[in-house]
Amino acid sequence: MNEPVIVVGAGPTGLMLACELRTHGAEVLVLERLAEPSQVIKAGAINTRTADTLARHGLLSEVRRAVAVNLAKFIELLRSRDPDLPADYRPPAFGGHFAGLTGLDLARLDRTDPDLSPRSAEGVYPMTQQEVEAILGGWAARLGVPVRRGVQLAGFSQDADGVTVTLTSGERLRGSHLVGCDGGRSLVRKQGGFAFPGTPATITAYQAMVELDDPAALSLGWQHLPGGVLVWGPTPGRLLTVELDGPPADRDAPITAAELTRAVRQVSGTEVTVTSVKTATRFTDNARQVPDYRDRRVLLAGDAAHVHAPFGGQGLNLGLQDAANLGWKLAAVATGTAPEALLDTYTAERHPAAAFVLRMTRAQVAAMRPTPQAGALREVITDLMATADGNQYLTKFIAGQHTRYDLGGGHELTGRFAPPLDLPIHPGWVLADLTGDPALAELAGREIRVFPARDPLRPELAAVLIRPDGYVAWAADRDRPDREGLLTALDTWFGATLTAAG
After folding, report:
1. Side-chain half-sphere CA neighbours of 339 within 13 A
2. What is d(CA 72, CA 69) in angstroms, rounded to the nearest whole number?
3. What's the whole-model pTM score?
């Protein structure tokens, strides 16, 4: 038996990575310091690209069930303000926000854009991080992924053949690779000596589930106010405050009802009082990124590799996409079907995606400041959102559909997430055949499944080579078969990247 890949952290990124590894044939062991999943309020939605990724593993129905529960809570909150709300009321799909500005219009999207998923019209998928973890935890259990809770990393060392991990209990474990999915304060990153350059914190923000003495004193939704930014909702009791006059004095101090009362009064200008706190967290706009996500057999993913303010809802989704990108590659290396050099493509592809998110979150903080200059900037952004191009650009960012990997090739789909092709669920490499060409199966070989496919929106499309993470490695049109391009793509990825699920 091959030594397992050791994943540190059983949050969404760690669980997603573990499931991808196991799906593609690798042994895996997940270590988590918490005895039970954290109930602290964190992310509140997944975006379109994450929904696309989970759909590839047959998990979208579970996502939709969680979304239905949360939409019901939102409608409950609206009805508490408006008892005359129709019994069959359903809110329109929400495209997300940029810096708290919510004018994005899903109905105005250009559907011919090759970056867009057909799920774009559904907007963001409101669900808690705990609900995401529950779905991924169930998937891990079905795959037989071992998750050891209540154990903590003390240190590790790596050599030419693997990684030795020492726990605080003194137990020593051996793995082929070690992946730190242990959050923004990652012990793996710190002990591994990874650089973490970036910009320091300039804000103090709280997110909490609370009860107020006078909830009607706060308007629903995002508000830019003289004291900062306030959000009440979209589910009953959810409170977000942002003060833009410096970082907290003590990031780790327990959060009290009195502290939240001070913050909400400071930002809102009301005398509302927080009477009880169910869960709360404190965050800043500290924005940093590791230059290289890999040091030989030690890798980082999610917040361990990049941190930023959560505005726009990118953090959870960015980590899940790291895991989807890394999982099949690391499985191929760990099972001996690909050389270690394949892992170089992980940083090459994912670092630019995270760098773009850091840039966009810094821009949102700049636009949130309660100054005349920032107010003017918000007006400019609002004007841009009202244009077709501005609406398209920002909606794609919020939906996670801006990412395109530089994979070479001349087709517009190469490097983009695969379009809907009426394909069966399959976790490995797929060659989609839209013309019934028997020669494709011979070219693909035994390692790639060839499926008949169709795309009514692209009648010119002939064939698409799709990686296990859903991204297109090669594509050709009917009038330009590009067999040489397919052979080049196969030579680039195969022999080097065969996966056990192929």
Report:
1. 7
2. 5
3. 0.96
